[in-house]
Amino acid sequence: MADIAQQDATPAVYGGLAELLDRLRRSSEYVLIPLFALVAAGLLFSIFLLALGQSPATFFSLLWRGGFGTGFSWENTLVRAAPLILTALCVAVPARLGLTIVGGEGALVLGGFAAAVASIPLVNAGAPSFVVLPVMGLCAIAVGGLWIGLVGVLRHYRGINETIASLLMSYIAIAIMNFFVEGALRDPANPNKPSTQAIGEANMIGDVPGLGVHWGLPVGIVVAILLWVLMNRTTFGFAARVTGGNVRAARAQGLPVGRLIVISCAIAGACAGLAGFFEVAAIQGKANASLAAGYGFTGILVAFLARQNPLAIVPVAVFLGGIAAAGGLIQRRMGMPDATVQVLQGLMFVVLLVSETLYGRMPFFRARGDKR
Amino acid sequence: MSGTDIGFWGVPLAMFAGAIRVSTPFLFVSLGECLTEKSGRINLGLEGTLVFGAMSGYAVSYLSGSPWLGVLAAGISGMFFGAIHGYICKLPKVNDIAIGIAMMLFGTGLAFFFGKPFIQPQAPHLPSINLGGWSDYPQIQSALEINPLFLVGIVLAVAMWWAFKNTRWGLIIRMTGDSAPAALAMGYSVDLVRFLATTVGGFFAGVGGAFLSLYYPGAWSEGLSSGQGLMAVALVIFSRWNPLLCFAAALLFGAAGAIGPALQSVGITQGYYFFNAAPYLLTLFIMIASVSPKRSLKGAPGELSITK
Amino acid sequence: MSAFSLNRRTLLKSAAIGSLGLTTGLLTRRPAFAADLTIGIIYVGSRDDYGWNQAHAVAAKALAAVPGVKVVEEENVPETVAVAKTMESMVELDGAGLIFATSFGYYSPFMVDAAKKYPDVQFRHAAPLWTDKDPKNAGSYFGYLDQAHYIDGIAAGLSTKSNKLGFVAAKPISSVLSNINSFAIGARKVNPNATVQVIFTGDWSMPVREAEATNALIDAGCDVITCHVDSPKTVIQNAEAKGVKSCGHNASQADLAPKGFITGAEYKWETIYKQYADTLAKGGELPNFLSGGYDLDFVQNTPYGAGATPEAIKAADAAKIEMKAKVPVYVGPLKDNTGKEVIPAGTVHAPYDPWIDQINFLVEGVTGSIT
């Protein structure tokens, strides 16, 4: 009661400012708690390092340098983050409907493969890159969308658990790609690394001018923003969230649950397929076994850390990219195994996820007068 | 050596042998996960537990000279991971699927970190029991060279199946998994039951890992597990939370994995990528054929986040 | 672009000043003298994998012994943009002046691009891929392991009883196919009844499937097993456990099979790395292309184990002398296993004929298919 009385006593002129500060303080919960968790994880990891006779100071300064400390480090970080944004979206969108899709890897691989295959006749016919690239991109999106869309179909019309189906299908997708890449579509120019025919230097997507990072990064950010708008500001998104909250209630409301599931899964797969397109068109220049580099699986982690929020995925992907980028420097300078960074990542994620239990528990972040 | 060439009969025999050889880790991890999920919690991190179990089992077997001590160490380290998972997941607002994925990363990371010095040395292996002495065919003899852990796994599967139905503890676990309020009303601590189920589940998964490094294929390396732990978790849902079906699913998966090499060995070599993907294709087709939207997942624990 | 480069240099400098206390020598840019050189080595797997990567890591220690040379290493680097960034990072942050990229898929486009981007830095790649169209600061070094597999084949052909030899292979690519073919040609030269059965696992490192393949080959009657996978430990161990003989690959696996080990095909990377180290110590320039086999001591065979019969040892020793004298393995007429003639009568492919790098068939006597 005292709080409310105080609030009432505040002169109207300051009301706006006080309210703003109050909102800031309350929303700072979403920044301060993760920060606190990261510090805690850092401390735990320092103990681990000290126990091994290594210097935490050196470790963290290298982590900073390798990931974010120089212009080059930023390039390294962002280029690693680019595919993760798209594969994380492949998890986050269906998550709004309560679906756990873990098969983004498969959609990425098949999307990239489809893009490379689509390019072959066009490149051979001498088509210009402004024709080749859009066709490749559309094929990647379509195939990725179909692949995860199929998971949605199986889920809704056959009642098959989407987590298992998508996991199984990602192994199958990799087998399909390998079968063709090492068989019918193998380019004789690559006798020792089976690949499809190269799309050619002229068709490679270059870097964003002034930034040593390919176009997959800005495209990923734009897609993340669009999907945030879709999921939070449209009827479709609202219906999806209702379905995710309670399927029975959604059905009772007459929502087209089946269509929502299939479309969301297709959107998710399209994102991963797009990531595959950029792997082919900006990095590899052809489809080969290196497409299955685990981006799809790392994306799952990014999505969960971002609490399935498309906007939060961007900074989380950059953060993860930074740690991965720094891993090399740490190996080289400290002579520690590559798994060191994996231990740190695992520890950070566990602590970050544990810190979610703190939300709403700290009095500091509560609204004034909230006596929960 | 004449008279031992059994031609195409080699394929079904290889599948049978493969089922016995390859299924054990799937069996242990899926039984562990089955126990955990029956109590209403999911632990996706068993892949990490499996890998850490494989490493610690191999390391302890090498250092102590006793493979059985290695198995025990693998189980205990798995128990440790299970306990962490179990403890964290009882905190409010914590997502058990996400924690599982993070624990998977943490477990494999730790295993790789501490496993470097153990890639080279040779640790003593688990013994095998030869049940095929009656046959003149070396193929059958080798197929029936069975590891004791496989037999332990069968006993465990049957015991769990029986215990879920007929014992008080089985009932408590199932009740906790189906309806936490009901378990609470009966005066049982839901958190404690789930914590114990997750811990024991971790033990099983760790033992499954020890099989990989100490028996088949029988060495510690970073590429040892190609997702066996993850697949085993999926197999639990596939086998509808029934320990006996877990056993069947593990056998099926092992047999399907042997198809690829077996077909190549009799000269069918085209499309080996698809034969190698047979376990995944087969599981998917069986699911498509056997599950229907009208029959909801029978036996699914009501509290499980992944099936809600 | 230029504006950003400028900006980046400035950034680098200021960052270097800022952290001078913590990490000294962070920005030793490209060295002027060989005696003050940082060398970066990149591995695709773990440095202790009992196979390909370990063979490199052990041999590369010769480089670290050169005075003034500092070696930085990174393992488990995938053949994606990660390796591009690792190379750049070695140059930008460690000031590396020479980089060894030891995995096949590092070459194109990643190493070629890096060589174009940093013309002052030398790049060397462990596969015979460099041509004079590629940047002059790039290059290749390679050992022709098929010569050692040929010796393996001769020893295996005279050590088998069932006349069936098993080969566990990762992928049907040229370098693997040439090893299988040389093994088969060697075996059938001394034992025309011998056949080689191949199982492809489809992956460079997949221990469970490698073990399954080994068992499948043994069940099919093979009594000698060899392999071409990244880490042969699983294959050799399982063969030994089943009481059959084995031939190694990449590095020495003799310890793993005290009863059945015959011999093994080994790279001798230390010859190459020592040669490089000597050149660097003298301040000389590294050659763009360095490859060889038995004649240059770039490959060798593991000392014979208990599985090798006396005839096998005798024949294999004789063949080693031939290999050192550059006697060719691929001599026409030669048919592939579909009956097609791949080398007409009278044609001979010398040991380092580029033709060998392009092999895309399995020779007669090999059971298996490359698709």
Q: What's the rounded overall pLDDT mean of chain B?
A: 89
What percentage of the residues of chain B does DSSP assign to strands (E)? under 5%
Oligomeric state of this protein: heterotrimer
Strands of the largest sheet of chain C, in order across it?
Answer: 12-10-9-8-6-7-17
Indicate the overall shape of chain C.
globular
Strand line-up in the sheet with most strands of chain B:
1-2
Number of domains of chain B: 1
Membrane topology (chain B): Multi-pass membrane protein
Main location (chain B): membrane
Protein name (chain B): Nucleoside ABC transporter membrane protein
Transmembrane segments (chain B): 6-32, 68-88, 97-115, 146-164, 195-217, 229-259, 271-291
Describe this structure in words.
The complex is a heterotrimer of chains A (372), B (308) and C (371). Chain A is an all-alpha fold. Chain A is built from 15 helices and no strands. The longest helix of chain A is centred in the middle third of the chain and has 30 residues, at 129-158. Chain B has helices spanning 10-38, 46-64, 67-89, 96-115, 138-143, 148-166, 168-178, 180-185, 190-214, 228-238, 243-265, 272-276, 278-290, and strands at residues 129-130, 145-146. Chain B is globular and about 65 Å long. In chain B, helix 1 (10-38) runs antiparallel to helix 9, helix 2 crosses helix 9 and helix 3 runs antiparallel to helix 4 (96-115). In chain B, 68% of the residues lie in helices and 1% in strands. Chain C folds into two domains: 26-138, Rossmann fold (3-Layer(aba) Sandwich), CATH 3.40.50; 146-266 and 304-367, Response regulator (Rossmann fold, 3-Layer(aba) Sandwich). Helices cover 36% and strands 19% of the residues of chain C. Chain C contains twelve helices and 17 strands. Chain C has helices spanning 2-18, 52-59, 61-64, 81-92, 107-117, 146-157, 174-190, 207-219, 233-241, 269-281, 310-324, 354-357; strands at 37-42, 69-74, 98-101, 122-125, 140-143, 164-169, 195-200, 224-228, 245-250, 261-267, 289-292, 299-301, 330-331, 334-335, 341-343, 348-349, 366-367. The longest helix of chain C has 17 residues, at 2-18. Chains in contact: A-B, A-C, B-C. At the A-B interface, helix 7, helix 8, helix 13 and helix 15 of A face helix 4, helix 10, helix 12 and helix 13 of B. Chain A: This is Simple sugar transport system permease protein. Chain A: Keywords: Cell membrane, Membrane, Sugar transport, Transmembrane, Transmembrane helix, Transport.
